[in-house]
Amino acid sequence: MNKTILKWPGSKAKVMDELNKHLPAGNRLVEPFAGSCAVMMNTDYPAYLVADINPDLINLYRQIQEFEKPLTALAASVFAQNADEESYYSIRKSFNDDAGMPLIYRAAYFLYLTRHAYRGLCRFNQNGGFNAPYEKTAKPYFPTEEIQVFAIKAKRATFICGDFTETLAQVEVGDVVYCDPPYDGTFTQYHTNGFAEIHQRQLAQQLNELAAAGVPVVASNSDTSLIKNLYGEFDRHIISAPRSIGVAAGKSKKASEIIAVSRHANKGKVAA
Q1: Taking a C-beta distance cutoff of 8 angstroms, is the pair 50, 150 a contact?
Q2: Domains within the chain, CATH numbers bracketed
Q3: Is the pTM of this model over 0.90?
């Protein structure tokens, strides 16, 4: 199992064994909700189209893709020189206030902030400012190896910043679509604008249309009546997944979630 660069609450890293059972073969995996890129890092498609509405997340991935070594050196220096709470809030202020910051510095700061934030939370306010609080740890982990492995895999990927409607409009014959949106009934203030029921419905409508056109579609979400209704034409598999936000350190909590699989999906499996 390949670990991810970011801590990322809700990452699919711990459920990839289950998820890989349902991901069919294809020429390219299209992911409108990039998150930690756990799915990209633990599948073996010939190509990837990875998108997210969060420009800082996509910038980090692009900087690693193009400038792995200088980005790693810069980020390691930021980690080493800013090891306490006061430094965290100073970095956070610079990150939020300096609109002209070079993109490689912005990527290094974003990596630093998410690795030092409470439970790895990536949270922005309505004005687009990163506002996750500091979490004191003995020594935040610097993901050198994860960055190296990601840079290799990223050679197959195209990273775009956009919402799910823009991304799904780029689906081509031979693609496989996997969606891991903010879950129904959970924290949805991921980046500036929330992900409300209307967005769940819009997403499901697009995915149902793609599935009806013969595109293999797989989606993860909460095990709720709304999601069951929206994906009524899909095969639905219930799994138990870990949750970390709101759970005391060192403890674990699990919740039921759905993996919805379009019935016309190619059943050939991908080598993980």
Answers
A1: no
A2: 12-57+158-182+199-262 (3.40.50.150), 62-145 (1.10.1020.10)
A3: yes
